[in-house]
């Protein structure tokens, strides 16, 4: 895709969501790491409901490892895969205490070695907690990038990330990440995207297909409708 087309997409989404930001509530890098870990296959809204109580009870890695695992499981029970996530949190906290003085490491290569922390989580943490430009590819970012031809339909998550990093100016990586999420979460939704009012319809291959299909269906219904 030409740089002018990419610029058009970025500017348009920027105008739609100028205040896009991380919607996971957190007060520091440690809380953000826990929140992103919990958000896998779960909505940010649900995570925020759970962490409202969780972050009042647990302030440090020591707090998490000082309670029985079963207690931590109950504290995050409303989160999907809560048993596995409780184990990840406990093991992550042990490593933070043993290797990093109880602090979340700032380097991406260190973060991805922590239990439950993959590349996406590490990208979110380094960009939002430590100010390092990064693009984290979640389901929203992946969907939007592919629909707008910023990435290939068959691209892996890593390939999508690399293509976005190449297309988007580095200083805009973090902001673009947030704006793509907002665009995908509130406008270009998975099941019911707002194609009919989308300012990017002219560059969206998915949107064009949907609108064409909708027009064909409308025409067929009109043809079948009884004439007065």
UniProtKB/TrEMBL annotation:
Transmembrane segments: none annotated. This is Endonuclease III. Belongs to the Nth/MutY family. It is an enzyme of class 4 (lyase). Its EC number is 4.2.99.18. Binds 1 [4Fe-4S] cluster. Its cofactor is [4Fe-4S] cluster. The keyword Nuclease applies. One of its GO terms (molecular function) is DNA binding.
